[in-house]
Automatic annotation (TrEMBL):
It comes from Candidatus Kentrum sp. MB. InterPro entries: 6-blade_b-propeller_TolB-like, Strictosidine_synth_cons-reg. GO terms for molecular function: hydrolase activity. Residues 147-232 form the Strictosidine synthase conserved region domain. Gene3D superfamilies: TolB, C-terminal domain. This is Gluconolactonase. One of its GO terms (cellular component) is endomembrane system. Keywords: Glycoprotein, Phosphoprotein. Belongs to the strictosidine synthase family. The keyword Glycoprotein applies.
Length: 281
């Protein structure tokens, strides 16, 4: 009996010690909405199986693509290279950011605007020369610069997915269930960076409307897309554009395919204490 008591006491001490270890997250309770039925436009299909694979085996980790005025395709790689696919299918290195380029978009001067997860908002000229445009806003540095879009005046709208967690730790942002994301704008004419929206749950893909009167931003860890008004009576206001998507809306245009990510810990995400404990593993 003495050994049994000692055994359980040892387990109890271990549990208390484990719980007392500081967690890298201060998680908040979150109850996800019930997933919509996969019917109608949400019904599964096999359309993507018809897609042609370009640069197969030569591009590791591209999260976005951009096409220049000559029809050449650009994509970022995990090793920091931006690769270019020529019309004949040949893949070459166009430039290097030394980190991880995510969102890509060409401006009207032929410069490739890049959101690098670590280095912030970059501009790469046609010769491959990299220039840093901005790395912070309101004194808060970017931790996971994500996706850009550009209006007719050259103003760049982009996201910083999290002001707390860098790219390798993005799952901590999910499990913490707290809003660290921001929607921002950068005006190359003035060099000013402005925060348009803050407290977003992993701010991801960005897309301007055709009239450029509003911009859409994906709030990945809330299964929704937010509309931020740039012009008109509602200028400066925001509202849900689409809610309760069947999966996490990813990086890239919010009109693009949604739901290509799934929740890693759906039953546990509603319990902040459990999430904080599990993240220690």
């Amino acid at each position: 009996m003495k050994y049994i008591h000692g055994f359980f006491l040892l387990i109890l001490v271990g549990i208390i010690f484990f719980i007392a270890i500081p967690s890298p997250i201060d998680s908040a309770p979150y109850n996800p909405p019930l997933a919509p039925e996969l019917t109608g436009v949400l019904a599964p299909n096999n359309e993507l199986r018809k897609a042609e694979l370009l640069g197969k085996g030569l591009m590791n980790g591209p999260e976005d693509v951009a096409v220049d005025n000559e029809g050449r395709i650009y994509g970022g790689a995990l090793d920091g290279r931006i690769l270019r696919i020529l019309k004949n299918g040949h893949v070459e290195t166009f430039a290097e950011t030394q980190r991880h380029p995510l969102g890509l978009h060409f401006d009207d001067r032929g410069n490739l605007i890049v959101c690098d997860a670590w280095k912030g908002l970059l501009s790469i000229d046609p010769k491959g020369t990299v220039t840093t445009l901005t790395t912070e806003a309101e004194g808060v540095p970017f931790f996971l610069t994500n996706d850009p879009d550009i209006d007719a005046h050259g103003v760049i709208y982009f996201t910083d997915a999290s002001s707390r967690f860098h790219q390798p730790e993005y799952k901590l942002d999910l499990m913490g269930a707290r809003p660290y994301g921001r929607l921002l704008s950068y005006d190359p004419r003035t060099g000013q960076t402005e925060v348009l929206l803050r407290d977003l749950y992993f701010a991801n893909g960005v897309a301007l409307s055709e009239k450029e009167d509003f911009v859409l931003v994906n709030e990945t860890y809330r299964y929704r897309t937010i509309r931020y008004w740039l012009q008109g009576e509602k200028a400066g206001a925001h509202e849900p554009f689409i809610d309760n998507l069947p999966g996490f809306p990813p990086m890239g245009s919010p009109q693009a395919e949604m739901g290509c990510f799934g929740s890693l810990f759906p039953p546990l995400a509603t319990h902040s204490l459990i999430s904080s404990i599990l993240i220690r593993f």
